[in-house]
Amino acid sequence: MRIDIITIFPAFFDALDISLLGKARQTGLIDLQVHDLRDHTHDRHRTVDDTPYGGGAGMVMKPEPWGDALDAVLPQATDAAAGPAVDGPLVIFPSPAGVRFDQAMARELAAEEHLVFGCGRYEGIDQRVVDHYAARTRVRLVSLGDYVLNGGEVAVMAMIEAVGRLIPGVVGNPESLVEESHENGLLEYPSYTKPASWRDLEVPPVLLSGNHGAIAAWRHDQQLERTRRVRPDLLPEANAENTHSTRG
Ligand code: 6GU
């Protein structure tokens, strides 16, 4: 997979050199490039923002640097006549005004060939940037959740980690992906390792029983109990009543 990130803070993404994603980059499974938006400014101060039309607090990111930076990674998208593409690169603008990111979206993104992340700061990017590229390629606004970050960088780090680990070959043992929180719509069961007794706390005896059927049943019960307790909104019962879904 190819991933391009456009940001005014390239150093945020230094951490993508380490751990599993760093390895995936070294082995060529992920071709990830970080681009400094300020390299696409043409004034002495390398200005990327300006005051909002209509007034209001904060600054808005200017369209010209974004246009130049995106054209450089999306040569296909400079042709408007072709209309909005059904394939080709997918452009994602992290934004608290976007569709909420979740494991299902991570799976969809993991099947893409080329993702482009445009990290906005301040009060956001001039809307015409989104409109211009939406007429030429696939564009999505994606939010991490219902809270406000200072910019898209941390959100994009989270999305890339969630997506990257689903790319075949990135996680050594693919079975470890299956039993995790959210993969079957439930939170994951609690895990234990040696020693069997620690500070007067015992590992649940069923896990020492060697009875694989009983262990699987216990783990499923734990998943249900945990999900009911902390995330009842994930259960089918909750969604049956909640036909006006919060997704979308
Ligand atoms: Cl994707 N960006 C920003 N700036 N804030 C957020 C977010 C994204 N998701 C949740 N809060």
Offer a concise description of the structure.
The chain is an alpha/beta fold and 248 residues long. It is built from 8 helices and 9 strands.
Structure description:
With 248 residues, this protein is of the alpha/beta class. The chain folds into two domains: 2-165, SPOUT methyltransferase, trefoil knot domain (Alpha/beta knot); 179-234, Orthogonal Bundle (Trp Operon Repressor, Chain A), CATH 1.10.1270.20. The protein has helices spanning 19-26, 63-73, 103-110, 127-134, 153-164, 175-178, 212-230, 236-241, and strands at residues 2-7, 31-36, 49-50, 60-61, 90-100, 114-118, 138-143, 197-198, 201-202. It has a five-stranded parallel β-sheet. It has a two-stranded antiparallel sheet with strand order 3-4. Strands 8-9 form a two-stranded antiparallel ribbon. α3 (103-110) packs across α5 (153-164). 23% of the residues are buried. The mean pLDDT is 93. The structure holds 6-chloroguanine. The site of 6-chloroguanine has 12 residues, from β5. 6-chloroguanine binds at residues 94-96, 143-145, 147-149, 151-152, 155. It comes from Cryobacterium tepidiphilum. Its EC number is 2.1.1.228. Keywords: Cytoplasm, Methyltransferase, S-adenosyl-L-methionine, Transferase, tRNA processing. One of its GO terms (cellular component) is cytosol.
What attributes does this structure have?
two-stranded antiparallel ribbon, elongated, 8 helices, binds 6-chloroguanine, five-stranded parallel β-sheet, Alpha/beta knot, Trp Operon Repressor, Chain A, 2 domains, 248 residues, alpha/beta
